[in-house]
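so ive been stuck on this for like two days lol. basically i have the seq below and the ligand is fe (ii) ion, smiles is in there too. i just want the complex predicted, nothing fancy, no docking runs or whatever. if the output looks off dont worry ill sanity check it later, just need somthing to start from for the group meeting slides
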Amino acid sequence: MTAAAVGLSHSPLIGRNDPAPEVLAAVEDAVDTARTFVRAFDPDLVVLYAPDHYNGFFYREMPPFCLGTDANAVGDFGSSAGPLPVDADDARALARGVLDRGVDLTVSARMTVDHGFVQPLEVLFGGIDEIPVVPVFVNGVATPLGPVGRVRALGAALGEAAAALDRRVLFLGSGGLSHDPPVPVLEGAPPRVADALIDGHPPTPEQRARSEQRVLEAGRDYAAGSTTMTPINPAWDNLVLDTFKSGRLTDVDRWTVDWMGAEGGGSAHEVRTWIAAFASLAATGPYRMTSCFYAPIPEWIAGFAVATAEQEPTS
Ligand SMILES: O=C(O)/C=C/c1cccc(O)c1O
Ligand SMILES: [Fe+2]
């Protein structure tokens, strides 16, 4: 088995509320580097760790992690809708492997996913149906959140399980780093919002348009410096990236949920997907980061990063 990892921030505001042309050009360069890396690695399976934004997972049952043996994208914010090409046999084998290693994993035979899963597939592969995937939801939005060390344990267990497959596996983490978009919060929500967060009534097109407009306006406020949300925190983002670069992944076991939220805002927990992806790669042997780009991009409400990593060659 051969493995590599990519971490990639997502934002539904890409293409809708863009930063200055020179920032956009730097992002495009970095994403191009990641695309070239992925093309050269030539994966035949992507294990995709991503969060959800109350499109597929709700408080009626909110698992910390969930692996899909089948998945369908809702098409929020203009992202692609429809089925993901899930490799169900590999998905089942990986689920068994994770459970055998003592990590309690929920399995879904009909997972619903949103832009968190779709955007990295579109950006790196040109669409959602270009490569077999195993989608793994990692809750990074809905509190309460469990210990960060359990996310590392999930990633490590899945990496060990993947090592038994005769595959070229790309572990892909979607989200982060510091950012605080207006994602609804159950605690203190008015009854209509609370019902939607618990039961997940599919929004009408008008409701979806209104909530997407709210995110767009939040991006404009962020860029104008008039936001009341937690600002992007480049110092914290660089600490997080340095942790992945150094390979000292056990450091994350000391990261608390409160500390992450205070430093990086309500959606900084999306970086859990990166932790899982790098822990999976680390479980296959020593790795090295081959590229790492970072820019604070308030227009996208994103401490935006893209990083690639490969296994150290064995001598
Ligand atoms: O409202 C949502 O569903 C999410 C918005 C968002 C905005 C910026 C960065 C992100 O990671 C997001 O998910
Ligand atoms: Fe997100």
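The radius of gyration is 18 Å. Residues 83 and 303 are 29 Å apart (CA to CA).
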